[in-house]
Amino acid sequence: MWFRFARSNLHRCTALNSAWFGGERAPQSLLDSFRDLSKTLPNLRVFNTYGPTEATISTVKGEADLRDPDLTVPVPSRILPNYAVYIIDDESRALPVGVPGEIVIGGAGVGKNEYLNRPDLTAKQFPADPFAPHDKEASGWGRMYYTGDYGRLDARGLLAIEGRIAGDAQVKVRGFRVELGEIEGVIIREGAGAVVAAVVTLHAGEGDHDGLLIAHIVAEDSKGKSEAQVAEIIERLGTRLAVSLPQYMIPANIIPIHEVPLTAHGKVDRKAVQALPLPEIKMSVTEREEQQKSLTVTERRLADIWATVLPAHSLGGKPLTVQTDFFLAGGNSLLLVKLQDAIKRALGDAPRLNKLMSATELGNMAALLESSGAAPDWDKEIALDFLDQVPSAWQARDSKSSTAGLRILITGATGSLGKRIVPHLAAFKHVAQIVVLARPAEGRDFTHLFPGIEDKVRVVATELPSLPVDDTELIEIDVILHVAADRNFWDGYGALKPVNVSAAKALAKLALRTGAALHFLSSGAVANYEAGSDINGLPRPDPADGYVSSKWVAERYLADVARQTGLQITAHRPTKTAIVEHPPADKLTEIEGTLVRSILFSSRSLGVRPDFTHVGGTFHVAPVEDVAAAIAAAASAGHQESEEKSLRMVNYPATASVRVEVMAARVSELLKLPENEVVQNLTAVPVLYWVGQAKRAGLLEWFFTSQELVVTDEEGRRVISRR
């Protein structure tokens, strides 16, 4: 479900060995996505399974050959031991190889299975197996199960499942088996005399859309009722079905007809009903203008996104309003996953699924987007909201004696930069104590994070943006250094806000309470949105660029705190290199050559090598120890006398720039050499993931100060990351 409707997440898989399709037939597009993934994960294997619950879960298994460009779904699968599969015609006669028919399962897996308290249905679906070998009857053979599924066996004995048999009133919706007659009975019951007939059919979905349940009803005295009267019956019925049926069984649309089509034998002609045209959504210019007036900007934008996700005929001709419920408008749990992905593509970020599930009306969901940061109001994000609640203790801090030594609070001390800053801070004699706020993690031993300097370091477990509940030892803090940052490449503003913004705001409150100087790590890319004291009319960051937009909000917010209170706040900005180089396109610079050698060496230690596919652009680097030492020196200087009330800025320019494509080409050349065969045979993982692993292992001696990277996903969409 997740990979099918939020397929962009597949590119995040970096160590996937096996994937299994089951429950219902996977779409061709999903198989193609896994085929693309196998190019970076050559050991990936994809399997297909099939088997109804009545036959004890799994009857066949097949492996999709991802190297076969002609492979399509359904994936032919081999019958598992202790099972038998027969293809029969309408008279239960076995059909030849290659001829399609109903799939019937026999064998020990069927055994003595039965429907609870339904002997009639059990007898119908589980007859004696005339094809079972007599010598296997003692092993549980002897009965078989009519699946109602349609398929064929090939000459190799492989089974291909192609759908349900024609005319069957049992369908599969999002993995659930649904009896259409059951829904029809509920419609008649809930119609309370106003509905005299109902026929429910499953309409095939387009592309990756699942099938759509459509109900056609005949209202009592339908020809004598006006359209408004029939519409009122349908609206009342829709409300009742929402509480009477499971969500996956609720028809996406209820359409009135005057009479039900019948076959020549007087039975309901489901095919004819299914072929009836579905109503189209038609809005006059006046109706559209009224809708635009009644919705906020966020609601209108969200309504447009809904329209791209919901099935074309699911709204029944009704325009969206703030009260329109996503599920009652034709949505379902699977489409909600697809909606989340569509919101993220359009707005750069999206709330979690459980949040969307609890706000299914258009108006509520739009409000959720605004509050979660998916559609942020930048003015609200940077507005100060707490100055009147915080005592101005910081005003007296500069008179405090320094004889006791400096106490420094640091976040992000377990990251690649932070863990190098701490030893530099501890080396200063005037630094008495370093309080490290560290995120609890499985297997992390707080007592041995900083060997050799434990006498100066105290580690406190906390999950930013929350600060320790018992903050008595924080009251005496002289300097706060906020290095922690969520640098996720793909996430938008809302996802990165907790650590990059909310934590910065919480630390600003702490600084105002204690009088501590505040230092925080920012981004040189924020300079693109600088405006001094006036930001009106200037471009605002794109919320899709979560890192830069979150750092912009933090800077703007803290600049306002400094301006209004005089609190000493310093932003440390890693930036691009000031050195302009124009090396030949086919030759490495000195730093590029150093990094290439480092990649080959570090890959052996990590057990994986980087795959540069789909990644291009430039990044800028500086020696991480130099950056760490400079930040530590600035933070340990403590309070600086100044009458100026403004945010201070310190830049850390890179010492060199690196071209990804040039470096990738050189790595590819070197991997062909015999001495690098060991590295060539390692599993390839996306280069961004490889860099993260190298950082965590302490194998990268370089700090990435800036980047302009272009990443292309498997569907050709480009994501540009600037830092």
Automatic annotation (TrEMBL):
Domain Carrier: 293-373
InterPro entries referenced in this protein's UniProt entry, alphabetically: ACP-like_sf, AMP-bd_C_sf, AMP-dep_synth/lig_dom, ANL_N_sf, FAR_NAD-bd, NAD(P)-bd_dom_sf, PP-bd_ACP
PROSITE patterns attached to this UniProt entry: CARRIER (PS50075)
Keywords annotated in UniProt: Phosphopantetheine, Phosphoprotein
Annotated PANTHER family: BETA-ALANINE-ACTIVATING ENZYME (PTHR44845:SF6), CARRIER DOMAIN-CONTAINING PROTEIN (PTHR44845)
Name of the protein described by the UniProt record: Carrier domain-containing protein
